[in-house]
Write a structure and sequence with these properties.
Helices cover about 20% and strands about 30% of the residues. By secondary structure, the protein is α+β, with helices and mostly antiparallel strands. It has 2 domains: about 1-115, 2-Layer Sandwich (Alpha-Beta Plaits), CATH 3.30.70.580; about 115-250, Pseudouridine synthase I, catalytic domain, C-terminal subdomain (Alpha-Beta Plaits). Strands 1, 2, 5, 6, 8, 9, 10, 11, 12 and 13 form a 10-stranded mixed sheet that branches. Strands 3-4 form a two-stranded antiparallel sheet. A hairpin with a 2-residue loop joins β1 (about 1-5) and β2. α1 (about 40-50) packs across α2 (about 85-90) and α3 (about 150-155) crosses α4. The two termini are about 25 Å apart.
């Protein structure tokens, strides 16, 4: 994950990796009353170092149960420390599920969310008659056969600029449902199916509804095509919302002037066993 802070008249960005939302061995979405917001955890870690009350801007949202392999956030501070001292200090005050990778100064006009030109997610499906065991908290499990060729065929239909009203949650507050999908990659390794999606922006639950719909079509449970569903502009025509535990925010991409590393878009090797 990455974030920015302001030192004097400068801002800086912190890159954090591996924000796996696990609480006592269970996804946070399943621990009622035990959901601790990652934002509060990071604010507290920063406050211990700076003794300042700060606000944080994030590159992308991660709902309860969703993982982030490369998140970016920014904050402002008057404290001056070396990059290594910032990284070591923050990591020493963060849980094992969150790790700061890098930090860098940026201009005052940088914003983790609004300066991003692209964002990428990967959704991990475990398709087998047997349960995923060690990957249970990091994949969406389906024991019915998923036709990978059908899934790929319909995934390609998302490419381009479309009205994604059929693929947004009822609580989505975005005023503009038009999003541009620049790339979709479907990979298969043994029982794992990985769907990586890159877009300029996403609606609330958009990726999970897209994937859930692809799964329903690939299992023969939904007879509409993705093209048909896009034209409907109606959530009721799309498939189920896939589980949060299978979704990984890979990170944002920024203009090269900010000198912030782009995310790694291929995470298949992490699931090869």
């Amino acid at each position: 994950m990455s974030g920015t802070f302001k030192t004097g008249n400068k801002k800086a960005v912190i890159l954090i990796l591996a924000t796996i939302l696990i609480c006592k061995g269970k996804p946070l979405e399943e621990k009622k009353g035990a959901l601790i917001k990652n934002e509060d955890i990071r604010k507290e870690a920063i406050k211990k170092i700076t003794k300042e009350d700060i606000s944080i801007n994030y590159a992308g949202r991660t709902d309860a149960g969703v993982h982030a392999l490369c998140q970016v956030f920014d904050f402002e501070t008057n404290i001056k420390r070396s990059d290594n001292n910032w990284i070591d200090g923050l990591n020493s005050n963060l849980p094992d599920s969150i790790s700061i990778k890098s930090i860098s100064k940026v201009s005052d006009d940088f914003h983790s969310r609004f300066s991003a030109i692209e964002r990428s997610y990967t959704f991990v499906i475990y398709n087998s008659k047997t349960k995923p065991l060690f990957f249970n908290d990091f994949s969406h499990y389906d024991n019915n056969e998923i036709n990978i060729n059908t899934l790929k065929e319909h995934a390609d239909m998302f490419i381009g600029s479309h009205d994604f009203s059929s693929f947004r949650s009822s609580s989505c507050s975005s005023k503009n449902p038009i999003k541009n999908i620049t790339e979709i990659k479907v990979q298969k390794h043994k029982n794992f199916i990985l769907i990586t999606i890159t877009s300029n922006a996403f609606l609330h639950n958009m990726v999970r509804i897209m994937v859930g719909t692809l799964i329903d079509i690939a299992k023969g449970e939904l007879n509409l095509s993705i093209k048909d569903i896009l034209k409907k502009n109606d959530r009721t025509f799309a498939g189920k919302t896939a589980s949060a535990r299978g979704l990984f925010f890979l990170g944002p991409k920024y203009n090269s002037i900010f000198n912030i590393p782009s995310p790694t878009l291929n995470i298949l090797d992490r699931f090869k066993i």
